[in-house]
Amino acid sequence: MDPLTAAALAALSGAGVRITAVVCRHLGLRWRSREEDARGRVVETLARVLPEGGRFREVRSDGSSVTLTIPRRPVRRGYGTGE
User: Fold this and answer.
1) Global model pTM greater than 0.70
2) HEC states along 5-64?
3) What local confidence, expressed as pLDDT, does residue 29 receive?
């Protein structure tokens, strides 16, 4: 292989590697963005349907944690106790 062909091939290979890296990075960011949107919808829905007195806490970046506190309703006598 002559030196000019070898140099051209090396340059094209390097460009191909950089292009592949950029495409992979773009796809990763796109995936992360979609995951974040889905997570936001879930958090929004949880906050909307949470009964009065309930609490929702989310820790992020990415020590991920979700805490959901739902208040207990008072137990009525005879309800579910067989009385």
Assistant:
1) no
2) HHHHHHHHHHHHHHHHHHHHHHHHHHHHHHHHHHHHHHHHHHHHHCCCCCEEEEECCCCC
3) 94
Q: Assign 3-state DSSP to the chain and report helix, strand, coil percentages, each to 5.
A: 55, 10, 30
Task: Give the type of residue at 61.
Answer: S
- Which helix or strand (DSSP H or E) is residue 66 part of? strand 65-69
Residue 78 has pLDDT above 70, yes or no: no
Which domain does 46 fall in, by range? 3-51
CA distance 67 to 29: 27
Q: Is the pLDDT confidence value at 12 over 90?
A: no
Indicate whether 36 belongs to any domain: yes
Q: How many structural domains compose the chain?
A: 1
C-alpha angle with apex 28: 23 to 31, nearest 5 degrees? Answer: 125
